[in-house]
Amino acid sequence: MRGWLRRFALCAPRVRALFALLLAELRIFLPEPNGTPTAAAVAAVLAAAHARGQQFSTEVGSPWAFACRMSQGKLLAAPEFL
């Protein structure tokens, strides 16, 4: 478990940027990050999943399943694999 958390912490700025971009396409803008990069990334993923569900009036399922779909399974991939 700790390896996953460590990896997410390393990828957090990129994850936040990816989901902030998705939100911007929906004309929703995240406030400036407040707290750790990990907390900001989690907030962006949750906000994007919620916004996407509202946009299509459907349930997107788990926010993390949504995040995996939006990142094409590369949510925690090393930058050289993106």
General description of the model:
With 82 residues, this protein is mainly α. 63% of the residues lie in helices and 0% in strands. The protein is built from three helices and no strands. The chain has helices spanning 2-25, 37-56, 63-70. Helix 1 packs across helix 2 (37-56) and helix 2 packs across helix 3 (63-70). The radius of gyration is 12 Å and the shape is globular. The model has no long low-confidence stretch (mean pLDDT 84).
Write the layout of secondary structure elements.
Elements: H1 2-25, H2 37-56, H3 63-70
* Class inferred from helices and paired strands: mainly alpha
Which stretches are low in confidence, meaning pLDDT under 50 for 5 or more residues running?
Answer: none
Percent helix range: 55-70%
Percentage of β-strand residues: under 5%
Q: Give the averaged pLDDT, no decimals.
A: 84
State the separation between the terminal residues, measured CA to CA. Answer: 23 Å
Q: Please report the number of helical segments.
A: 3
Radius of gyration: 12 Å
Q: What best-fitting shape do the alpha-carbon axes yield?
A: globular
Quaternary structure of the protein: single chain
Order of helices and strands: HHH
Largest sheet: none
Would you count the extended β strands for me? 0
